[in-house]
Design goal:
The structure is a single chain. It is globular and about 75 Å long. The relative contact order is 0.08. It has a three-stranded antiparallel β-sheet. Strands 4-6-5 form a three-stranded antiparallel β-sheet. Strand 2 and strand 3 form a beta hairpin. By secondary structure, the protein is mainly α. The protein contains 16 helices and six strands. The longest helix has 25 residues. Helix 7 packs across helix 9.
């Protein structure tokens, strides 16, 4: 998926609000430039090496950046790529919690809230958090939290974190047909983006993606291929010297399993709910079709609601792009046109001055009032 400049700015605003400007600067650089190694990030962002390292740790911890290893002329090199969809998913956390509350219960919702808040946690950290919330260390609370965790994983709302630095193989070149085909050629397959290839390489095998292992099974060889960290660390095991997590962030030689929310499952549930709502709406409209006295859809209540929502969106765009003065003019014209009344430019300015305690200032545009109206017409 190609990310537009507006999409990048939107994602940067989310990161800025949640983690601050230095982290947002690193994220913006990755979104605009694509995959970069640590040295390139430091040079591009003009931040200190420690600021870039800390920002990467935060972004990886919250699943907004995925490290991967790629072969270069000097050997294997660790690079970082921003995961655009995961950044946008941060605004859907409330919906994700509502899905779990509806599909499971509020206890599972509280357990999931810890994962959404911290990005990645071990199973033990989730249990400890449940004990802190209940202000009790009883075995009953521990067992209940364990059962809720199993329910979340079984429902695929929670999954194991991806591999810390998967090796990205070169994209296979598509072979060209040697002879012209006599049959109509099928649609050409769209090549995967580097982000899709990295995420596919980092995703755990389905056999262990939703596998819960007990303490007695920690020596299983499958687990040793998973994330390597402990405590509240990001879960990124360093193989090279690009980013030194070390003891400062709590990593050690003990293998642990980190868990995170499975955004794919939540989006699938929301999509199904949207389909169900569309089917119900279609059935409702079909059932009430005979009761309509007029066939024209221009006067239907549904169309009126859609028009009001569209007007609100356009008014918001006008306010942000052209300011309050243009917003006042646009809103006045909209209300009057809906009532079937139209005005000349001089009449619009006169009415606005009558309804405002201060005269309208057009210095923002640096042009005549009529040109302000022309600017509004250009977006309609």
């Amino acid at each position: 998926m190609t990310v537009t400049n507006n999409g990048i700015q939107y994602a940067v605003q989310i990161i800025t609000k949640h983690f601050g400007k230095p982290v947002a600067k690193v994220c913006e650089t990755l979104l605009k430039s694509g995959p970069l190694n640590l040295g390139d990030l430091i040079r591009s962002t003009a931040l200190t090496p420690q600021q870039v390292k800390n920002s990467l740790l935060i972004l990886v911890q919250h699943n907004c950046v995925q490290p991967f290893t790629q072969e270069s002329k000097t050997g294997l090199k660790v690079q970082y790529i921003a995961v655009y969809d995961n950044i946008l998913h941060r605004l859907r956390f409330a919906k994700f919690l509502a899905v779990v509350a509806q599909e499971l219960d509020d206890d599972c919702k509280q357990l999931l809230a810890g994962l959404l808040e911290h990005g990645r946690l071990t199973q033990q950290q989730l249990m400890d958090r449940a004990n802190q919330k209940s202000k009790s260390n009883s075995s009953q609370v521990q067992n209940a939290a364990q059962d809720n965790f199993v329910r979340l994983v079984t429902a695929r709302f929670v999954e194991r974190c991806p591999a810390p630095e998967p090796l990205l193989e070169e994209a296979p070149e598509q072979e060209r047909p040697k002879k012209p085909r006599t049959k109509p050629a099928k649609m050409a397959q769209v090549s995967e983006t580097i982000e899709q290839r990295v995420l596919a390489a980092a995703r755990p095998m389905e056999a262990i993606r939703f596998l819960i292992m007990t303490d007695a099974e920690t020596d299983d060889p499958l687990q040793k291929s998973e994330n390597n960290s402990s405590g509240m660390s990001v879960g990124v095991k360093r193989k090279f010297d690009d980013l030194d997590i070390g003891e400062e962030h709590g990593s050690n030689d003990k293998e642990v399993i980190l868990w995170r929310a499975n955004f794919e499952q939540f989006i699938c549930c929301l999509r199904h709910k949207a389909y169900e709502a569309a089917v119900e709406l279609r059935a409702m409209l079909k059932a009430t079709r005979t009761a309509e006295t007029k066939v024209k859809t221009d006067y239907s209540a549904l169309k009126k609601i859609i028009e009001l929502l569209q007007n609100d969106e356009v008014e918001l765009i006008v306010l942000k792009r052209y300011g309050k003065d243009a917003y006042s003019i646009f809103r006045l014209l909209t209300m009057q046109s809906n009532a079937g009344r139209f005005f000349e430019t001089d009449m619009v300015i006169t009415l606005l001055r009558c309804h405002s305690s201060q005269s309208i200032e057009f210095s923002t545009f640096g042009r005549e009032p009529v040109n302000m109206l022309l600017s509004l017409f250009s977006i309609m």
